Amino acid sequence: MHSIYARINNVSATLSTTIMVLLTAIALSSFIFTGGPTGSVEVTSVKVFSGEARRYPHRRQEYAFVNFNITADLTPLFNWNTKQLFVYLEAEYTNAKGVRNEVVFWDRIVRRKEDAVIAVSGKNKYPFREVSAKFKNSTPANYTLKYNLMPFVGMLTYGEAARVTEPIDFPLARERVE
Amino acid sequence: MFSEELKTFRRLGFRHVLLQILNFASVLASGLMIYKGLGLITNTESPIVVVLSGSMEPAFYRGDILFLVNPQNKRYEVGDITVYKIPGQDIPIVHRVLETHDVVKVVNGVRQAKPLPENQLLLTKGDNNYLDDRKHIVGKVRGYNDFPQLKYALLGGLGLLALVQRE
């Protein structure tokens, strides 16, 4: 009854149950924090240039270059269960072949509350290409600033921080920079 | 040294030892059943994975535990963190989706109304792998546990208990 085995058994059982309950409670607690971020995003210019495809040197491929301004306050997303935020700028459009595309061309990882106020005016970080190689006859693109909240324990949550009010057309491709 | 243990062993008898083995086997079997049952519900081959590489740092470090789901007939979205296996390689890769391209099938010259999730092309960040086929995807990360010690504690504790328990 009071053997060392029984004691170890009891202690470890209590310990594991407590930890599990605690972790569940922490995971559930993140549903209480519902404050959303505020911000605005504007795309200042979109240019399309024709270039060489990356892995196929003799194939032509169009690249879009997007300049944008972001101001966003993501501090409401930081609570005690927030490990980091993954903030990304996404373009959404349908190309001439009817393929619906979602492309991320800029992202940032925010790890501290002090860095959660974002003011960026920049250009795309990743190459913005079209699967069919040409942006011609694509629908105008919607640009959205989204975030992914990654907790210490619990579910990943996704959301939208800001959006460009009107879809923006892709211009015709240019061969060289003037 | 082990004379005491051997004596108790002899006292308990052969049947008791058999029972102990049976207990141990049932613990293992129920664990496997829970794991496979979870896999059936979440539609993935492995609902719980351990991160093996540092490619998603600082989000996921090696040894972190991820809980996966793979909803049927639902497209993957940009920002989703996917776990996929490339044929011929054993180690599953954890990467985030950067681009999705929903290819619409054309049957007899008629473009289908809705893109099917099976025809989705994904680009994930890391090594710039194009995935032509959703087949390779095991699931997307839904839950996350930044507590690798827990795993060892639980496994070690359970193993110890299974061995130690006499009742």
From TrEMBL, chain A:
It holds the Pfam family SPC22. GO terms for biological process: protein targeting to ER; signal peptide processing. Its main location: endoplasmic reticulum. Keywords: Endoplasmic reticulum, Membrane, Signal-anchor, Transmembrane, Transmembrane helix. It comes from the Eukaryota. GO terms for cellular component: signal peptidase complex. Coiled coil: none annotated. The chain crosses the membrane at residues 12-33. It is found in: Endoplasmic reticulum membrane. It is a single-pass type II membrane protein. InterPro entries: SPC3. PANTHER family: MICROSOMAL SIGNAL PEPTIDASE 23 KD SUBUNIT SPC22/23, SIGNAL PEPTIDASE COMPLEX SUBUNIT 3. Belongs to the SPCS3 family. Essential component of the signal peptidase complex (SPC) which catalyzes the cleavage of N-terminal signal sequences from nascent proteins as they are translocated into the lumen of the endoplasmic reticulum. Essential for the SPC catalytic activity, possibly by stabilizing and positioning the active center of the complex close to the lumenal surface. Essential for viability. This is Signal peptidase subunit 3. It comes from Multifurca ochricompacta. The lineage of its organism: Eukaryota, Fungi, Dikarya, Basidiomycota, Agaricomycotina.
TrEMBL record, chain B:
It catalyses: Cleavage of hydrophobic, N-terminal signal or leader sequences from secreted and periplasmic proteins. GO terms for biological process: signal peptide processing. Its main location: endoplasmic reticulum. GO terms for molecular function: serine-type endopeptidase activity; signal peptidase activity. It is a single-pass type II membrane protein. Catalytic component of the signal peptidase complex (SPC) which catalyzes the cleavage of N-terminal signal sequences from nascent proteins as they are translocated into the lumen of the endoplasmic reticulum. Specifically cleaves N-terminal signal peptides that contain a hydrophobic alpha-helix (h-region) shorter than 18-20 amino acids. Component of the signal peptidase complex (SPC) composed of a catalytic subunit SEC11 and three accessory subunits SPC1, SPC2 and SPC3. The complex induces a local thinning of the ER membrane which is used to measure the length of the signal peptide (SP) h-region of protein substrates. This ensures the selectivity of the complex towards h-regions shorter than 18-20 amino acids. SPC associates with the translocon complex. This is Signal peptidase complex catalytic subunit SEC11. It comes from Multifurca ochricompacta.
